[in-house]
Write a structure and sequence with these properties.
elongated, 81 residues, three-stranded antiparallel β-sheet, alpha+beta
């Protein structure tokens, strides 16, 4: 599959599917469950990080947030049965 990429004055790129990707750098935060540390930007291997999160505070609560989401999904699936 080939892609045609063109730079736009607003720092965006356009692919063949007409999708626009914002190329402006935005800070993202990740949580590394091995080290129990928040990382600014993806620093560790993907397998060793959770995220991205909008804030360092959210990233610090990554395990709690993921557990809550999993609980909600289980509850929704139980209600469907």
């Amino acid at each position: 599959m080939s892609f045609i990429i063109a730079w736009h004055s607003a720092h965006s790129i356009f692919g063949t599917a007409g999708m626009v990707c914002d190329m402006q750098e935005k800070t993202s935060y990740w949580f590394n469950p091995k080290t129990k540390r928040v990382e600014t930007g993806p620093q560790s291997l993907a397998v060793d990080r959770l995220g991205p999160f909008a804030t360092a505070e959210e990233a610090a609560r990554a395990e709690e947030i993921i557990a809550e989401r999993a609980r909600r999904i289980r509850e929704e699936e139980e209600q469907e049965d």
